[in-house]
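Comment thread on ticket #2218

A.B. wrote:
> Attaching the input chain for the structure job we discussed in standup.
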Amino acid sequence: MSNSNINLVDKIFFEDLANLNPQDVCTRASCKYDDKNKAYILSVWGDEYIVYPYELRIDCIQDGNARPHEYFYLFIIFYLLNLKEIKVIKEWISEKDIPGGPTFFRGPHEIPTKLISDQYKNDLKAFRDRCIQLGGSELDLADAAYSFSIVPGIPIAVLYWEGDDDFLPEAKILYDRTIIDHLSLDIIFALAVEVCVRIGKTSAL
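C.D. wrote:
> Ran it. Output below, let me know if you need it in another format.
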């Protein structure tokens, strides 16, 4: 299925990508380059994306998953532009541990984890089933938690706590500390929105 979304991706980012060495991009981002079509091909969370820098276009060839949130296209092109050759350190942090995060991730940029907690309430089995369906690996955190290798070099984790008479169910997203070296705050937000939308099995914001 073709799905082009360039409204949120300024053409300058496509131009920046077009000016990079494809071999370098492919080495950093673990993707492929189609010389004939001058396009990058990469697997993101089980779907194949084709990025055409010269045509200002990103297509998604879906594999049965929900349509990506439009913010996700921003994440994809910034991933190709900015991923560095840094090994993950397997140290989970929240958005509040990211420099500038406590100020940025609130109001319109609050991570919409309620899409997850409102969807599953206290149904841990349904949450686990959805995470497994999306390729998650179980973690020994919270009441249930899974890590996801959405793209190479950017692992994330989703934690879930059941609610009770005093507290509502709660979900949280964690990131490997190295995400600070790869992505800016707004692009981390774009990634987090897609995680919440897809795990919450809800329509786009």
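A.B. wrote:
> Thanks. Noting for the ticket: The chain has two domains: 11-82, 92-199.
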